[in-house]
Amino acid sequence: MADAQTKPVDPLAGLIDIPLPQEVSLWPQTWPLRVAIVLVSALALLAIWRFVHQYRANRYRREALAELDGIRRAADAVPDQVATRLSVLVRRTALGAFARETVAPLAGPAWLAFLDRSYGGQEFSQGAGRLLISAPYQRTPPDRDQLEALADLVHRWIKVHHV
Fold it and tell me: Does residue 76 sit in helix, strand or coil?
């Protein structure tokens, strides 16, 4: 009967807590690895800065390509003004990319030669690009194939010209 009056013994009371290991540091323990992390972080920041700078510097290209798409869509409505609008677009794009003193005084063959130099080809002075200086003054507008070739050339020039 004496056992019935004693309190039951807690079987977990005698257990001892297991010591936990030390926390693992997320920072590397060796100096070369620390230097490598700092260098990789710096290079990542530099790459991000360069990407943002390049993206901002090429804003005029994206705007010019968007306007070119609008000109191509409107070509069906007013085909006789397409060459003039393309000429204005190329001039404005060049003024946005190059020094105004270089681009503004150019006209005629000198303008086409400048476009050839910045593009790296002869398609402006020898090919479809000649329409930029002649089409606005022709009595009959150029046909659709000529305008499409000119629009393709302008598209390539906007995308790849060298500033």
Answer: coil
